[in-house]
Amino acid sequence: MPVPASASVSSLLRALVLVPLALLPALSCGSAGERQAADVAGMTAMLEEFLPVLGRVYADGDVEALRPWAAEKELARIAALVASLADQGRYLAPELRQLTVEDARIWNNSNAFVTTLEVWDVRMHALGSGELLAEDLGKRYRVKYQLKRDGGSWRVLFRAIQD
């Protein structure tokens, strides 16, 4: 029995519509993967800017220098740490040597948990004289960050050394 001409046009139209629709999940995974990679690159770039400034803040106490990268709560936490060291007559002078992002988990396109492995040269000095009290070169820290997207960039909500 021959297939009516209208049936083959209908089948052809259905194929033209359904085949691209079937490919959408695969295509969207690619763009989601690209978006994830771009987000991780953005987070890494932000941390590469933030961490050297954090080291200077521990040395000079100017917590305001971190404002472009850190939320108020994190600024307050860092200020308390710097003040505590000053109360003990000491200050830190850490220098970042290496940063590796080990894991990044993003949710709702605006929040992230990031785990890094950071290598620091850490020196402790006497406040006032600058005398070197202690140093720990090549100190490795695993650090967990909670980040929040703020416009087109990421901000540190919380930073905690894991080990």
How many distinct helices? 2
How far from one another are the termini?
Answer: 76 Å
Q: What is the C-alpha radius of gyration, as a whole number of Å?
A: 25 Å
The sequence of SSEs as H and E is HHEEEEE
Query: Spans of 5+ residues with little confidence (pLDDT < 50)?
Result: 12-29
- Which bin fits the share of residues in helices? 40-55%
- The class by helix and strand makeup works out as alpha+beta
> Looking at the structure, what is the overall shape?
elongated
Mean pLDDT: 87
Count of β-strands: 5
CATH class group: Alpha Beta
- Main sheet record: 5 strands, antiparallel
Provide the number of structural domains. Answer: 1
The third-level CATH topology is: Nuclear Transport Factor 2, Chain: A
In CATH, the architecture is: Roll
Strand coverage percent: 35-45%
Provide a descriptive summary of the structure in words.
This protein has 163 residues and is α+β, with helices and mostly antiparallel strands. It has one domain (5-161): Nuclear Transport Factor 2, Chain: A, CATH 3.10.450. Helix content is 44%, strand content 37%. The chain has two helices and five strands; from the N terminus they run H-H-E-E-E-E-E. The chain has helices at 5-60, 72-87; strands at residues 90-92, 95-107, 111-126, 132-150, 153-161. Strands 1, 2, 3, 4 and 5 form a five-stranded antiparallel β-sheet that branches. It is elongated and about 55 Å long. Residues 12-29 have low confidence and may be disordered.
